[in-house]
Amino acid sequence: MGKNLLEQLKEITVVVADTGDIQAIETFKPHDATTNPSLITAAAQMPQYQGIVDDTLKGARATLGKSASAAEVVSLAFDRLAVSFGLKILEIIPGRVSTEVDARLSFDTEATIAKGRDLIAQYEAAGVDRKRVLIKIAATWEGIQAAAVLEKEGIHCNLTLLFGLHQAIACAENGITLISPFVGRILDWYKKDTGRDSYAPSEDPGVVSVTEIYNYYKKFGYKTEVMGASFRNIGEITELAGSDLLTIAPSLLAELQATEGDLPRKLDPVNAAKLSIEKLSIDKATFEKMHAENRMATDKLAEGISGFAKALEALDELLAARLASLEG
Q1: Chain centroid, CA 137 distance in Å
Q2: Which of 33, 129, 131, 48 is nearest to 82 (CA)?
Q3: Which of the following is catalytic: 115, 136, 218, 266?
Q4: Is residue 136 annotated as a catalytic residue, yes or no?
Q5: Which residue segments constitute the domains of the chain, with CATH numbers given?
Q6: Predicted confidence (pLDDT) per residue in 118-128, tens digit
């Protein structure tokens, strides 16, 4: 019996689970896992994970004492919850988990650095080596500068909400460990902008964008890893077979697992090295100019930060309600 698409993909690409659902991670056995505010908020509302939420709230109360206000307890639990999920995930996977900095800090370099250090300190206090954690930061200019500082301290970063080559090059030039270009969200923007219902997988604007970034990195020998993210269909995934990593939602992992057929490698460093590509250097002025000229990247970065911020606000409300229930 032949191998399914997921089995073949795992032979040429590191498969990452894009979820906070621990049961899904146990099912599909990815190497790494990524979370974001929306995924953590969704997982925190699932009955099977109520224990993680409750334990985090109780731990925050124990740390602060009985005299602390509910708002103070919720704030501390809020800061700890993503790490609580991350610790559970790391018990299952052999590789790394990505934990995201508060999206509301995306344009504040110093605050992002402080939060990244705090997240790593929480993991290390729980006995986890920092090599197993990626601090996830929005790929604003300010976020990239924060990540550059953290990388020099041995805190590895995953730059997310990445939609353009200018963001990718700036990350590579600053020694970032990994980037997460958002394939599906790019497709969403182009479908809305052009009025088209669909694109062939090879012509999918998100696929084209990630292919361009991958080839650029391999052509010029950058060590930054490329992890395609935010997929809408398995056609996008199979077109990026060979990428360093791909982070995939459980529903699409299931579809890949259920699909038979050959999976040819589409991205290859040997082929990329042969391409004729102009090398660019990205300083702040160039970054801002290229970003302003890219309507899609401008729209989707702002939308992504706003969406994650709203998810965090929803999580804050969820924790407050749960604490009230626990403490009567």
Answers
A1: 8
A2: 33
A3: 136
A4: yes
A5: 5-18+30-326 (3.20.20.70)
A6: 999 999 999 99
